[in-house]
Input
Amino acid sequence: MSTESSRRVPPWASWSTLVPILAAVLLGFTWGRDLPGWVVSGVALFLAGSVLAAVHHAEVVAHRVGEPFGSLVLAVAVTVIEVALIVTMMSSNGEKSATLARDTVFAAVMITCNGIAGLCLLLVALKRGLARFNADGAATVFGAIITLAGLTLVLPTFTTSQPGPEFNTTQLTNAALDSIVLYGLFIVAMTVRHRPDFLPVDAAHPAADYDDADYEDPRETGPAAGSAKNPAPGYDEHGYEGDRPTSRQALTSLVLLVLALITVVGLGKGVSPTLERGVDRAGLPHSVVGVAIALLVLLPESIAAVRAAHRDELQTSLNLALGSAMASIGLTIPTIAVATIWLSSPLILGLDASHMVLLALTVAAGSLTFVRGRATLVQGGVHLAVCFSYLVLAVSP
Output
């Protein structure tokens, strides 16, 4: 055995294996207890470590199964975290959490469609001059996102059968069915019927489909360095570094991914009372809690999407961002609708006027961006401006 091989860290001793296991042990000691401040700090560190471990193991699984299945794995994983946190907090906080589902889902839509997508578009455009992606897939999923956002987050503000921005039982059932059916159709389209629409343009369509006669980038003399036809040095045809994981490695990562997600949910529940007390003491709107949950659960998506953009795999980045927004609405709303059977608190889903303006700006900007299949740094900057405005208004409405 060579010296280099002997110095390799065994898989069981790597940080990505140890952190979820230690976090699970910590969860067992802290579950259901009122934690002092210094313990909360330690829990928060393991919470962040579990999120990073989830990113690592999700990427291993994604590398094994390839696109677009890999993006789907991570999108569903983070949505499970989101739903679990919302349900647990609504069950323990009563009427105080009546708007938590709305705030979290809307935050997820704004952060994914504007923050993550805008940042990835900007990074690739700065590097390549022109950011190319598959317009067929991006436009399809974005159209489904804005439709569900309108049906579940805007429409309740204008219904009259219930006082306030709420659905009655029939309307909520309809919204839940619309969400789950459209999400199911999206899954079928992404993985079976129209899978090429969610692959990089070089792999799914010939370059002639995109007429760039009106734009020439002197830095771009051939296929993108990270494209399926010309992968970057050290990366495979999917844009992942190193050799493809074995089935055993992928299965191990899947188990550790599930464990990491469980610890994120459990530790997040332990940290949430401290977070809510901090929000109240700072005099911030309670909707900030929903923003914080969305930022936490979308951290794995954000890291994975930015890393993919750095490898010139913009399609993977957009699959992650838009797929996560679709999962957030398509899975959260039906789950919360079922949870209202035993939850005593009301469920307020309707957005206020300022948030509807931000959603309208997202629809306008996204429609001009995702239907073209290419973007400059201006489009990336526009989406980031909308996201930053949303975050500012969340703190100072």
In short: The two ends are 63 Å apart (CA to CA). The mean pLDDT is 79. The chain is about 70% helix and 0% strand. The beta strands are 131-132, 374-375.
